[in-house]
Amino acid sequence: MKKEIADHYSWVEYAKGIGIILVVYGHVARGVFNAGMSWDVELFKLIDSIIYSFHMPLFSLFQVYFL
Protein backbone atom coordinates (compact mmCIF):
# COMPACT_ATOMS: atom_id res chain seq x y z
CA MET A 1 0.00 0.00 0.00
CA LYS A 2 2.76 2.48 0.89
CA LYS A 3 4.53 1.88 -2.40
CA GLU A 4 1.36 2.82 -4.29
CA ILE A 5 1.08 6.07 -2.34
CA ALA A 6 4.75 6.87 -2.92
CA ASP A 7 4.39 6.21 -6.66
CA HIS A 8 1.22 8.27 -6.78
CA TYR A 9 2.97 11.38 -5.40
CA SER A 10 6.34 10.96 -7.12
CA TRP A 11 5.25 13.34 -9.88
CA VAL A 12 4.89 16.02 -7.22
CA GLU A 13 8.50 15.57 -6.15
CA TYR A 14 9.66 15.83 -9.76
CA ALA A 15 7.61 18.99 -10.29
CA LYS A 16 9.04 20.53 -7.11
CA GLY A 17 12.56 19.69 -8.23
CA ILE A 18 12.01 21.31 -11.61
CA GLY A 19 10.51 24.34 -9.88
CA ILE A 20 13.54 24.66 -7.60
CA ILE A 21 15.92 24.42 -10.56
CA LEU A 22 13.97 27.15 -12.36
CA VAL A 23 14.07 29.40 -9.28
CA VAL A 24 17.84 29.01 -9.04
CA TYR A 25 18.23 29.63 -12.77
CA GLY A 26 16.02 32.73 -12.56
CA HIS A 27 18.06 34.19 -9.71
CA VAL A 28 21.36 33.49 -11.47
CA ALA A 29 20.07 34.94 -14.74
CA ARG A 30 18.91 38.12 -12.98
CA GLY A 31 22.29 38.43 -11.27
CA VAL A 32 24.15 38.03 -14.56
CA PHE A 33 21.86 40.53 -16.27
CA ASN A 34 22.11 43.10 -13.47
CA ALA A 35 25.91 42.74 -13.41
CA GLY A 36 25.94 43.98 -16.99
CA MET A 37 27.38 40.83 -18.49
CA SER A 38 26.53 40.24 -22.10
CA TRP A 39 22.98 38.96 -22.47
CA ASP A 40 20.28 39.41 -25.09
CA VAL A 41 17.81 41.76 -23.38
CA GLU A 42 14.72 40.48 -25.18
CA LEU A 43 15.60 36.84 -24.49
CA PHE A 44 16.26 37.64 -20.83
CA LYS A 45 12.91 39.40 -20.46
CA LEU A 46 11.10 36.50 -22.11
CA ILE A 47 12.73 33.81 -19.96
CA ASP A 48 12.40 35.91 -16.81
CA SER A 49 8.69 36.53 -17.36
CA ILE A 50 8.00 32.86 -18.12
CA ILE A 51 9.83 31.57 -15.04
CA TYR A 52 8.45 34.16 -12.65
CA SER A 53 4.90 33.79 -13.95
CA PHE A 54 4.47 30.27 -12.63
CA HIS A 55 7.17 29.14 -10.20
CA MET A 56 5.62 30.65 -7.05
CA PRO A 57 2.06 29.63 -7.99
CA LEU A 58 3.45 26.12 -8.58
CA PHE A 59 4.73 25.88 -4.99
CA SER A 60 1.54 27.44 -3.64
CA LEU A 61 -0.55 24.91 -5.55
CA PHE A 62 1.39 22.03 -4.03
CA GLN A 63 1.09 23.54 -0.56
CA VAL A 64 -2.72 23.77 -0.87
CA TYR A 65 -2.96 20.38 -2.58
CA PHE A 66 -1.40 18.58 0.39
CA LEU A 67 -3.14 20.34 3.26
Instruction: State the separation between the terminal residues, measured CA to CA.
Output: 21 Å
State Rg.
16 Å
> Using DSSP, what is the number of strands?
0
Query: How would you characterize the largest beta sheet?
Result: none
Strand content: under 5%
On the 0 to 100 scale, the average pLDDT is: 80
Shape: elongated
Broad structural category? mainly alpha
What pattern of helices and strands is seen along the backbone? HHH
The low-confidence parts are: none
Please estimate the helix content: over 70%
Helical segment tally?
A: 3
Concise structural overview:
This protein is mainly α and 67 residues long.
What does this structure look like?
By secondary structure, the chain is mainly α. The protein has a domain at 38-67. Helix content is 85%, strand content 0%. The protein is built from three helices and no strands. It has helices spanning 2-8, 10-34, 41-65. α2 (10-34) packs antiparallel against α3. The longest helix is centred in the N-terminal third of the chain and has 25 residues, at 10-34. It is elongated, with a radius of gyration of 16 Å. The chain starts with a helix and ends with a helix. The relative contact order is 0.13.
